[in-house]
Peptide ABC transporter substrate-binding protein (Mesorhizobium vachelliae), 530 residues
Amino acid sequence: MLKNMLKATVFATTMALATGSFYTHAFAETVYNRGAAAEAETVDPHKTSTVYEADIIRDLFQGLVMHDQKTNLIPGAAESWTVSDDGTVYTFKLRKDGLWSDGSPVTADDFVYSFHRLEDPATAAEYASMLYPVKGAEDFNTKKGKAEDMGVKAIDANTLEVTLKAPTPYFLEMLTHQATYPVNKASIDKLGADWIKPGKLVSNGAYTLAEWVPNDHMKLVKNPKFWDAASVKLDVVNYIPTEDRSSAMKRFEAGELDSYGDLPTEQLADLKTKFGDQIRVGPYLGTYYYAIKTDKAPWNNVELRNAISMAIDRDFLAEKVWQNSMLPGYSMVPPGIEGYTPALAKYADMPQIDREDEAKKILEKLGYTPEHPLKMEIRYNTSENHKNTAVAIQEQLKPLGVEVTLLNTDTKTHYGFLEQKGNYDVARAAWIADYKDPETFLGISRKASGNNYSNYDSPAYEAAMDKAAAAGGKPEDRMKDLAAAERILVDDVGEIPLLYYSYHDIVSSKLHGFDDNVMDIHPSRFISKD
């Protein structure tokens, strides 16, 4: 009996020590619970479409160049590069210690394959147009050319040469976007569609994908094969989607979230009082707009689109709905891009009452009155902020003879519907700068863009954008050409810009390296936690 008791005691002690050891190890892990306003649809860089995915993909993969925590351009998978005198040929030297998470080397051929895959029509990438500055890319994507004719060439395993159609000043900035990141061909060939699943995804970034529980969390773990793994401080990053902003604030207060990127603005004053400098608000390169179906009657009438846009009181939206965390917007390109002056709507300086009177005259001329109202549906994705915006616009338009109905869906469904060119009238959308250049805001309204939700199609606009793309000489001349293109877009009301973004984040005081910047980009590899 005593012998058995001793055995039991030894067993229990051993288990306690083992258990204690496990919890000590688990406790030693540094875990960042990163709140997100919506769930990602995919972690495939070439099928991405939202900022929610961008944050995650930026942690999993690494492009040729990257942004640091202050959005400065830094080397990524390429340790250096050179540019030809005429600005059309970029030669990238890849890191010799750059590895995929399975231990295989990252090579120039990986980027050739990935650039081809992005442009392959079979991929149906929304961001295929991003690489159109590359020679032959647009032809391949539009089935007028072949992949091998693209200006992308592996000189050797560690040297990639990219040839552009014309000098493109923003090309390096563009390469920070997740759509230009490399993917692992061997993994895709072996696993097919399953290559993006947790435990199977082969990536080259600071983290790997360990778990993905839909509507709950996505767990990323530190990648020991990453070339700069020694400087990565966080062991685990959990992306936790929480569309209900008020619930997110409660989870932050309870310590379940360490940061969250979309505050309920109606609570902003109280949140600032409660959380102090953990609330971060500042300028952000983004435009909050309504896409409007320009190829569908009656919205194909530019006078009607202009009347609707003119009647919306943006000052009210900014001050009352968004509690001054946004600014009234009258152009697609927000202020803040060096050397560029946005083309504002011609009525931007008109008093609101005069704008409403003018809009009413146009609507009456077109046959719309309170007795014979124009029917208009506004679609928006789940958010109290978006709902309040839509309700305010509904009330503003009602006296003018516009009967607005609202339709709400979750973010994934909402953007999926827009991407598939669904039938709608007006839909909430937003564009956050992919790179610090006006082209990122203007390119989405080009006919070929997968992000052209309005189906805007203007030969004059296309010609103006082509002229800007081909512009040589002084950078200020190119900026003037882009502003001329924006003037066409704004006068046509190809989109309805409403507000310019400010970021409004809540960030735990335990986090370090979550630096404020106009892109609101915060790569986890630069963040640490007490």
